[in-house]
């Protein structure tokens, strides 16, 4: 079995089980890291200087790596940078892994790897810089009693993929979720539901399982509209919202628990449909009130200020805004609940090194305040709490959701994608739809708005998830046609070099993504890799050529890299489309 195959399959398996990688390390020869280490040793030997050596990937005609280290040294040494570059280059030429070392311009050093070094660089694995770290990340947070919409899908997909990146980087990742099971939104839904059943709970039993989400969505819309249009209804909804905290009315409690269970069944089904790895712990807002309020009161006046029976955090001093965490009526507000949640996570995962949430940009300032207050109240969590803010999700016709209760649901989006895939001649399975949808979200830098046309998103010719799924299936199809045994390539021909070099950049792309937790780096790399393979395949016959055994080995490596990258993105890599 190929080392490269074991390597990428190990990565895929590790992500799916959300456990630390435990497969053995492959030999690392002349990776980018090795080049940096070699350059640092040479610079220390020649000049006794410590330099932050940076390598870039130049145009292939100039080499495999380039560095401006000589320019960095020129000022402290008081020497001509080209002279310094020539001295460093001369030392580099004595190393077996380099076939060419040249100096260009004022002092840039271009390095070309030997053929064997390029092939061996295919075995380089992504770094595991977070090995031994414990991470807790919320990978979904839709509220029950209302429809899960496309904004929730963005946050869930992004957080799930960040969890994958953290796992690849060696961390022990714990995926959790958090949901608001009390408050105004519950009051709106319950107002409509109680009117609908008119005291007869058995009417809920008559609603088929596949119609429950539609029913819950309609109830929330009706309640939201009533709250907006009728002062009387709004007052009734306020009372029903309060009841969600105490549940001391038997009818209310029975209906509440039935519909809450329906909601969580639907949330779990939708999240699975999106391709997310299952969570291990579900937190709900109703369990956060007590610990949150207790901590806030205990840290007053040290962290919080009490004014007219309300507890306030001066968030304006920490890049946020002044916010009431406990109202004058004595109830905990959102801030108190989020602080309670942070305590529960800390209690359940006492050794956590990193706690991550993903929310919309409109909540960024709020979370800066919550994090600042929590770090002051629980000093051992300082530097461990992070919130990532996403942009808006839009169709080409505008924003995809609103606060009116009438939203673009997951069902609607899946149906639209299925229609588009059928029109394109594809088989619209949930895995294919989820792949197309995930990629449209993930290829955009975190914080940027996501704007896409559904038909374009399933194109087999553009920068889409469907294109990459097709590219993988196409490569597997080539392998299926060959009767040659798959072996790791032992030679590098001139026509191979661009493809092999691009394949060798996989670890670098993943390292960039894991360092910043930005999946778009993986998306960009995979698209470029697929394009490079297409150029190679157009010019070089695989099955039936006199180099079939060699080229089948290259195709196998390419297919496994594609699969490993897609697995990080949470996208299925089908054997055929």
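Sequence proposed for the structure above (577 residues):
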């Amino acid at each position: 079995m190929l080392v490269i195959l074991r390597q990428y399959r190990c990565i895929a398996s590790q992500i799916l089980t959300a456990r630390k990688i435990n497969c053995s390390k492959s030999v690392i020869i002349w990776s980018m890291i090795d080049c940096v280490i070699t350059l640092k040793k040479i610079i220390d030997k020649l000049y006794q200087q410590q330099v932050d050596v940076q390598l870039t990937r130049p145009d292939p005609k100039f080499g495999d790596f380039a560095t401006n280290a000589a320019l960095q040294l020129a000022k402290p040494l008081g020497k001509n940078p080209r002279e310094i570059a020539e001295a460093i280059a001369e030392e580099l030429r004595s190393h077996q892994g380099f076939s060419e070392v040249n100096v260009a311009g004022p002092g840039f050093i271009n390095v070309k790897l030997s053929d064997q070094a390029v092939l061996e660089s295919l075995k380089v694995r992504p770094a595991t810089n977070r090995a031994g770290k414990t991470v807790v990340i919320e990978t979904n947070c839709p509220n029950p009693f209302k429809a899960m919409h496309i904004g929730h899908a963005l946050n869930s997909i992004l957080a799930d993929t960040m969890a994958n990146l953290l796992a690849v980087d060696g961390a022990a990742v714990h995926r959790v979720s958090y949901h608001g099971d009390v408050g105004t939104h519950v009051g709106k839904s319950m107002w409509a539901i109680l009117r609908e059943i008119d005291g007869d709970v058995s009417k809920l039993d008559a609603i088929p399982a596949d119609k429950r989400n539609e029913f819950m969505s309609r109830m929330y819309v009706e309640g939201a509209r009533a709250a907006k249009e009728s002062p009387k209804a709004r007052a009734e909804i306020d009372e029903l919202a309060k009841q969600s905290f105490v549940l001391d009315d038997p009818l209310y409690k029975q209906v509440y628990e039935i519909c809450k269970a329906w909601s969580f069944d639907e949330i779990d089904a939708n999240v699975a449909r999106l391709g997310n790895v299952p969570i291990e712990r579900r937190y709900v807002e109703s369990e956060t009130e007590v610990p949150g309020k207790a901590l806030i009161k205990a840290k007053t006046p040290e962290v919080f200020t009490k004014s007219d029976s309300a507890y306030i955090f001066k968030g304006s001093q920490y890049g946020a805004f002044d916010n009431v965490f406990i109202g004058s009526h004595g109830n905990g507000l959102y801030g108190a609940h989020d602080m309670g949640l942070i305590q529960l996570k800390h209690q359940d995962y006492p050794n956590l090194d990193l706690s991550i949430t993903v929310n919309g940009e409109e909540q960024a300032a709020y979370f800066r305040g919550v994090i600042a207050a929590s770090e002051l109240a629980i000093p051992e969590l300082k530097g461990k709490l992070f919130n990532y803010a996403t942009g808006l999700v839009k169709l080409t016709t505008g924003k995809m959701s609103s606060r009116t209760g009438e939203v673009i649901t997951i069902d609607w989006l899946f149906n639209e994608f299925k229609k588009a895939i059928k029109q394109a001649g594809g088989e619209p399975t949930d895995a294919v739809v989820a792949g197309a949808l995930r990629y449209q979200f993930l290829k955009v830098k975190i914080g940027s708005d996501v704007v896409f046309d559904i038909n374009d998103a399933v194109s087999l010719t553009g920068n889409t998830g469907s294109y990459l799924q097709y590219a993988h299936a196409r490569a597997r199809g080539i392998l299926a046609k060959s009767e040659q045994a798959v072996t790791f390539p032992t030679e590098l021909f001139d026509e191979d070099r661009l493809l092999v070099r691009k394949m060798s950049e996989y670890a670098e792309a993943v390292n960039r993504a894991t360092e910043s937790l930005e999946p778009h780096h993986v998306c960009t790399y995979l698209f470029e890799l697929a394009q490079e393979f297409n150029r190679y395949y157009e010019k070089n016959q695989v099955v039936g050529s006199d180099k079939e055994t060699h080229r089948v080995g290259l195709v196998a490596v390419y297919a496994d890299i594609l699969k490993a990258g897609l697995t990080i993105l949470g996208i299925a890599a089908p054997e055929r489309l």
